[in-house]
Amino acid sequence: MKPASLDLISAQETSSRLGISRASLYAYVSRGLIRSFASPHDPRQRLYALDDVEALVKRRTQFRRPTAAAATALDWGLPVLETALTQIKDGHLLYRGVDAVDLAETAPLEDAACLLIGDIAADAFALPSPPISPLAGPALGSQGFVSQAIHLLSEQASENRQHPNREIATILRLMAAAGSGADPGIMPLHRHLASSWNVSAEAADAIRRALVLCADHELSASAFAVRVAASTGASLRNAVIAGLAALSGPLHGGATDHMRAFLEECDDRGGRAPSQSKAFPSFHHPLYPEGDPRGATLVKDLPLRAIDAAILRESEHAGEGPTVDAGLVMMERAYDLPRGAAFALFAIGRTAGWLAHAVEQRQQATLIRPRARYVVAQDKAFP
Predict the structure, then answer these.
(1) Are residues 156 and 13 both part of a single domain?
(2) Any transmembrane segments, and where (predicted)?
(3) What burial class does residue 88 get, using C-beta atoms within 10 Å of its C-beta: 0-12 exposed, 13-18 middle, 19+ buried?
């Protein structure tokens, strides 16, 4: 279904703007570069998303101007480094060629971590880690979780380079402990979290699925921060701390806090959803024109609250779907997980990907150090 605010143009105009043939246009559509919709006036005619066409024109111009391309590469722009970890292709999220949605059907986070990291022993998570210091309790929500996780990761600053598999397992367990307030031991992390949060077996399986779906997302802001830190030779723990700091921002993992506040505001209004879908946060992702598969998987078969179900219906009517942020918060509410558990799940799951990015960056043995283009500052009044 076409989003209500999307402008559409004909095949002739699309081909003309791009300077391509009809055959090339159809190839662009099949590769997911341009969205195509049936005409409301003639079902035999296809119309094309103007936003996608203009983005392709802009990208083509950037390729012809290397300086301009470099200047915009860091803002949803051109690829800036190579990775064998994760690919977003044709609306699918792939971990080393394996569809993340399919993997999440049965696999625990530990299996996703082994898949992403690659060079790790199968029994890495069967061995115990050093005991974790007693905690006062779980720390949830973006700021609380980040503070507790950094504290745990910083307790032992040196890296266990003689036993890298144990170090990887220890880091994941420290992250889970930040969200649960207890030492996971060698228990699978989703079961440990479910037990600590005292939730049902159904919720435990949803937690497992969420952790796997959050494991990686190509070169997200936090993964890039991890790779920059790792490229300097920083320890795995400090690289993960860099990822945590980036994840905490409201434009990244901290968007779960915004989504929760929105839903709780709807609760306060007596369960009335806004009539305008564009008021909904976390219902569009630039990398998934047809909808975020992670969010769709997370909300599937959930025992949703009435207001959450109503918002999903409104978003579907507008041609939008829930992102992973919305899915995590709706899952938190559906199973009465502790308030703020959505961010903890995001961070714990994403740690598997951060570790994989750090290991891959170390193997590339290059320092990430881009150059800045100096511009003359405008006159400003400083206090």
Answers:
(1) no
(2) none
(3) middle
